């Protein structure tokens, strides 16, 4: 029983530090893309921050695995965390570090009981829009046939792609950019489904609450009616006894 308790304590203690590291990763990833003319020292510092943040989340996975009571079960139930931790080691591309860190951040955030579904969905939308815009800008800006050259173009493209509108005024021309587009479209559809299901569940819960309250009131009225009938019967019986005595 010590291991599960230790694992829960570890997850609670590391939630905020890991969230702060995720914000640091966002800044480090965005700076070289938004400011392509930044100095080499700034680019190197951002690169180091990216690897440190990914390493921190990977270390968090290893520690949680060590604290788990049934480690094989932990690996099977957290296979996405494992893939995200191993992915950047296979081929150290910047985009792989982005995908891996996003996966680790997302999986880690889901384990926090105080994070509500609505907050998680809103954060996922903002994160996907931001990182999707930066990622597509980084791969499309230098493409000879590309038409996504500014951050504004990239953000607009991310909005239209995630909402599956697809105006076609901006579109990726590279293979990596198209892979990003597929990922954003699938993510947008999935998040839309989560939001729709959440709203439907809220309405159903409200209807069920109203139905329960209506049944409670109906039952209270029925009980009250029976009590009134019983009182009337008692009053009629007492009145009959008085008449008989006279």
UniProtKB/TrEMBL annotation:
Keywords: Coiled coil, Ion channel, Ion transport, Membrane, Transmembrane, Transmembrane helix, Transport. It is a multi-pass membrane protein. Signal peptide: none annotated. The chain crosses the membrane at residues 40-62, 117-139, 180-205. SUPFAM superfamilies: Voltage-gated potassium channels. The keyword Transmembrane helix applies. GO terms for biological process: action potential. InterPro entries: K_chnl_dom, VG_K_chnl, Volt_channel_dom_sf. One of its GO terms (molecular function) is voltage-gated potassium channel activity. GO terms for cellular component: voltage-gated potassium channel complex. Residues 214-241 form a coiled coil. Residues 134-203 form the Potassium channel domain. It is found in: Membrane. It comes from the Bacteria. PANTHER family: POTASSIUM VOLTAGE-GATED CHANNEL PROTEIN SHAB, VOLTAGE-GATED POTASSIUM CHANNEL. This is Potassium channel family protein. It comes from Streptomyces sp. R28.
């Amino acid at each position: 029983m010590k291991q599960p308790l230790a694992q829960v304590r570890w997850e609670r203690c590391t939630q905020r530090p890991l969230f702060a590291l995720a914000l640091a990763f966002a800044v480090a990833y965005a700076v070289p893309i938004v400011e392509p003319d930044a100095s080499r020292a700034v680019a190197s510092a951002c690169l180091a921050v990216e690897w440190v943040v990914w390493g921190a989340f990977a270390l968090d996975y290893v520690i949680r695995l060590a604290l788990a009571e049934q480690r094989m079960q932990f690996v099977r139930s957290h296979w996405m965390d494992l893939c995200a931790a191993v992915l950047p080691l296979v081929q150290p591309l910047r985009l792989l570090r982005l995908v891996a860190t996003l996966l680790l951040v997302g999986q880690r955030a889901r384990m926090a009981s105080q994070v509500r579904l609505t907050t998680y969905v809103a954060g996922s939308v903002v994160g996907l829009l931001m990182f999707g815009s930066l990622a597509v800008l980084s791969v499309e800006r230098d493409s000879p046939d590309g038409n996504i050259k500014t951050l504004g173009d990239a953000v607009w493209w991310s909005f239209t792609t995630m909402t599956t509108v697809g105006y076609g005024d901006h579109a990726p021309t590279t293979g990596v950019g198209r892979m990003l587009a597929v990922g954003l479209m699938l993510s947008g559809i999935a998040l839309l489904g989560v939001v729709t299901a959440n709203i439907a569940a809220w309405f159903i819960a409200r209807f069920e609450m109203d139905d329960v309250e209506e049944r409670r009131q109906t039952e209270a009225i029925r009980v009250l009616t029976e009590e009134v009938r019983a009182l009337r019967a008692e009053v009629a019986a007492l009145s009959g006894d008085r008449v008989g005595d006279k």
